Amino acid sequence: MMKSAWKVYVLALISFLVGTSNYVISGILDRIAETLGISVATAGQLITVYSLAYAVVTPILMALTAKMDRRKLLLYSLGLFIAANLLTYIFSGFGLFIAARIITAIGAGVVTVNALSIAAKIAPSGKQASAIANVTMGITASLIIGVPLGRMVASAFGWKAIFLVIAIVGAISMLVIAAVFPRMKGDKPVPLINQFALLKKPQVLVALAITFFWLGGYSLAYTYITPFLLEVTHINESLISAALFVFGIASLIGSKVGGYSTDKRGIKFTLISGMVLHVISLLLLALVGQSVIAVFAILILWSFAAWSSAPAQQFNLVSLVPESSGVMLSLNSSMMQLSMAVGAGMGGLIVNRISLASITWFGVLGVLIAIIAVFVLFSTGLRYSAAQSADKKLQ
């Protein structure tokens, strides 16, 4: 077990790098805007293009490379991810930076899905779920450690240094994988047309709409969290890293509590209660004023509430169509990235045309629509009929 455990942690480190490269943009948005001579709203579109590229290209590439040796695919995609981060460090213009972010997203998407697959393959029997959880924790850790650490590195050495560090650590990880990871056969390919056939089911569309509006509302506000804290709540620059750190810690606790609540109280209760708290926290953030203690408390509540919905929604999708759980999770992953892209894009429009202070109100609107979608799924019999249909197919 110990022989494979450390390899899983190498994969967790890689997922941490991927998550940091993605989420850190929100933590340094003001620095990027200042360096590139663009508005904060324009800088926010870096998240939009990244998430769109991730959402659209990842399922296509995973379908095309299904038969490829998993180790080789991980090395190729990790190499692309490393090269893209180096380009981000080297490039100076906004257009070239956009191109680098698109390449980063393409590499990151394949790296993430493949790392989860490899973790399950190399884990001892009965420990596959724990291995996958450890790799997923790498992404969570990027919120807790990577984003505030990135802010500190940006303050000390400039924001581009973050991507150089990611590339260097990624290169070291790549050498370890090449040296000690075994070759692994690919999976039986699932044609894209079969994957998207699930979208014909009304219950699947409603369930994915929950993800879209819940995470879209979250992304709309979180993308601009650093300039919001600096310009609207007037938090001191020296406290931004601390604010991002407590936000990350709360996301981890929220995810844990959300999983426990889903097991004990059910999917509907966990989703509704988490999203109601999500709405309340965004409203409070809009009204809190300039009290540092109050802002920190609300950030904790917001992150806790937002991420408590994640495990419940994942389980919701898996149990909705259990015979196609892998495809459902893949579709949900793409929907998550798409919602983040739309949220960041809408946020940019709102910041430009209305105000930075209003982003939390629009975030509330997205989460409220997600709550309505939960009631539609559970109150109209859609979910019950889907589960019943799945049970008949499995018998």
Description of the molecule:
By secondary structure, this protein is mainly alpha-helical. It has 2 domains: 1-189, Growth Hormone, Chain: A; 191-395, Up-down Bundle (Growth Hormone, Chain: A), CATH 1.20.1250.20. It has helices spanning 2-27, 29-36, 40-64, 70-90, 94-122, 128-157, 160-180, 192-196, 202-222, 225-231, 240-265, 267-287, 292-320, 325-353, 359-379, 382-394. The longest helix is centred in the middle third of the chain and has 30 residues, at 128-157.
Oligomer: single chain
Could you tell me the mean pLDDT? 84
CATH superfamily grouping of the largest domain: MFS general substrate transporter like domains
Distance between the first and last residues' Cα: 35 Å
| Unreliably modeled segments | 386-395
Give the ordered list of helices and strands: HHHHHHHHHHHHHHHH
CATH topology of the largest domain: Growth Hormone, Chain: A
> What is the CATH class name of the largest domain?
Mainly Alpha
Number of strand segments: 0
Structural class: mainly alpha
Q: What portion of residues belong to β-strands?
A: under 5%
Count of discrete structural domains: 2
Q: Count every helix, treating DSSP H or I runs of 4 or more residues as helices.
A: 16
Radius of gyration: 20 Å
Helix content: over 70%
Coarse shape = globular
Note the main sheet. none
CATH architectural group of the largest domain: Up-down Bundle
